[in-house]
Amino acid sequence: MTLLQVLALLVMAPLVQGVLASMRARLSGRPGPPFVQPYRDLAKFLRKAPRAGRAGSSLGFAAAGFALGTSVTILILLPHILGDSVRTTVLDVVALVFLFALGRAAMVLAALDSNSAFSAMAVGREIAFAAIVEAPFLLALLAARSTPSSALLAGSALFIILLFESARVPVDNQETHYELTMIHEGMLLEYAGPVFAAWQYSAQLRQVAMLVLVAFVLAGSGLPMALCLVAAVAAIPFVEAFQAKMRLFDVPQLATAATLLAVAALGIDIIGGLR
Amino acid sequence: MRGVRLLASSLLAVVAAAAIACAARPFAPFIVRSPIFARYLTLDFVATPLARPFLAFLAIGVIVVAIWNLKRGRAGAGIPLACFSAAMLGVLLAQSIFTFLLSWELMSLISIAVVATESERKSVRRATFAYALVSQLGALAMTISFAMLAVHAGSGSFAALAAAAPSLAPALRAGVLAGFFIGFGSKAGLVPLQFWLPRAHPAAPANASALLSGVMIEIALYALALGTFVLVAPVGAVAGIILLVAGLAGALFGGLYAAVESELKRLLAFSSIEHMGVMVSALGLAIAASALGFPALATVAFLAMLFHALNHTVLKTLLFLAAGTVVERMHHVTDLDRLRGLASGALKRSAPWILVGCLAAAALPPSNAFISEWLVFQGFIGATLSGNASLASVGLLGLFALLLGGGLAAAAFVKLFGIAFAGDPAPAQERETPEAFDAATIALAVAATLVLVLGIFPLLALHPLLALAAGIVGTRASSLDTMLASSVRLAWLAAIPVLVALGAWWYGRRVAERSDPVWACGSVLPARASYSATALTKPLRRIFAFALFPERRRSIDAATSIDFPTQIAYAVKTHDLTSEAARSVAAFAQRFVRRLRVVQSGRMRAYIAYAAIAVALALVLGR
């Protein structure tokens, strides 16, 4: 079951990315790329010559592999979408949060190793935002237990964290390449070829994992969870198309909102569980 | 020179061996009775179950320092360090108030002397003064507490104090605990008594910093556990929650300041405050949980504290010694803004081990600190789910603070390695002789191996520690065994990443690499234009401006034209409230003391009068 789901997610991750890009473009009145564009992009990157940070250092290669490995491990730890009694399976949320952090640490080190000041600028933003969304991330996952109200609050918190994690619009913009504002793309500026493909693919896997987690927190398991997954995918392009990118130093307010939602969700759980 | 090094390291090794011997097998109490006041002035040493893990931690830290000392550091520096370690050994073995205070003061005084080693620098003199002041005030507070306990029990031995503890009046118990928190907490770097620590620990030479930050604060943790679980037991939930909140404040404070700090050794000292905060909050949780009737939860928290103390000893010894290697190889440059590319330059051999240390300090898998932080989180999650209102609310608070502090600490260590070690080395490093695989590197390798072994096979340490924790605080519930079993699986989380990384590394070595200049909008940047640690943390300083009070000083030497300045100086400073508060308290104290100086008139008659008054008072009051 786990194996099947991991394989399905591994195959579907670029498709989700393609659907998101295409829907966003259509909502803003452009024809947009086809759904399968990310597969074509990955295939193109794989054919090109590798370029990983600075010459003479294999750290960039190793870090890309390491990050890809953490993404795959995250997929293994995810709850089952179509299985039953998911709420009783042991989902080690602490390990999950630390794995996300581990993948990010590999990426940040690789970006700093590439000697690029633009990458370092992006790293500064990435580590600042990562530090402030870590707390709501775990709290929201912990709240994924009891009442519908806490599930809704935790799901909204996790959706905001998804926007951080997968570089979506109010936080970051995947469609621009303007060095002074970008975060995720900025860190990978010095990477090309198969190594770049590894970075992009690993980011797509993390995005799918976050979507599964949002659906899990909202609905728990089975068909409702699958429906929530579709709804979460559909919601992202709307946010991206109708929302302007926030000023960089307004973004922490979004993290504060996520924290408040997560604390409220867990608070409801705690009050419900008092003896 | 070699002889002195060898002597110093063997002295350290002797202390470590003694610590291991005491930890491994119980020995009969070693007692020296004084001819007068035998009830109080007795030297009494024995290794209690609570002290035994800390004896092992002491031994590990001291051994790593001894190996490093064979190659680096001042040749004679090991000898005072051996005395320092012996004093710490004395604290752990002490079983009476007199022995404990004697060893504690020896430990404090030797460490103050060690911090003052480079006293020709003004910053070191100031740090020493702050440390000495806090240390002696703390000693005063704990002496008062011990005096109250001794009067209550009518004896100075710890066994008698523990036996008499249940009958302590609540007010007296609270007073004693307050003294202990001030005395032991100031040594442990608990907020708000931590302001001396980020000054004093980095001011010492690296091998001394390793023992101060890697071992001495764990001794302070032992003293806190001793005070709360033995000498004044049972301690109420309120005291536990106070300790817990102070620990959380430390985790937040340490993480935040480590994240924005640009001086290597100060960053490590702030990280010590963060890790200490994690341990003290776990201790507080253990106290609160056992007072509120959750023995299994208390055992988890206590176990997490013990294991994190072990892990912190290993990782902080490793990182401070690494900082010492940086100091020697880079000619006393420890400013992260001026270090770059050490992993491919001056510290090629040490860098992989330092990366392991940074991973551990950031508590990421597969390091040992990840497992212990995971256990701490299990404790706090258990508290939120316990169904008890006060435990659940501190559990929620704890999860939030530990995650935020931990996230910031992770940012700090990613910054440390990413800025100072990754990237191209500065041209000056090319001229240095390549680093040899010497004793200093071996010391780092030993500590890093220990980090990984404890991270991958945590049960090696967790099983013995669990037996101790269960004996001291609570029960050995079956839920604990399942928790430990799942902690083993955690270690293998990093297995797939490591395998894929090895494959990618091999692929990277195989394919031809081009060397293109990095993208800089079409221009080629010189090496000194590389990004600095201060710039990297600008977003953090801005987000946390409400706590950091960042202050920017920029001076432009405009020479002839404002558009083409000849020189720009730029400095960033952050403030912390506890230091400012301490400074104003010190200023007030100095003004007050200056007034009191009238009594020191310098006339003999006045002093004779004082003595007569003192004797009269003693006669009247002691009647």
From TrEMBL, chain A:
It is found in: Membrane. Keywords: Membrane, Transmembrane, Transmembrane helix, Ubiquinone. One of its GO terms (cellular component) is plasma membrane. Pfam families: NADHdh (PF00146). The keyword tRNA-binding does not apply. Its main location: membrane. The chain crosses the membrane at residues 59-78, 90-112, 127-144, 151-169, 181-199, 211-239, 251-274. It is a multi-pass membrane protein. InterPro entries: ComplexI_Subunit1, NADH_UbQ_OxRdtase_su1/FPO. This is Putative NADH:ubiquinone oxidoreductase subunit 1 (Chain H).
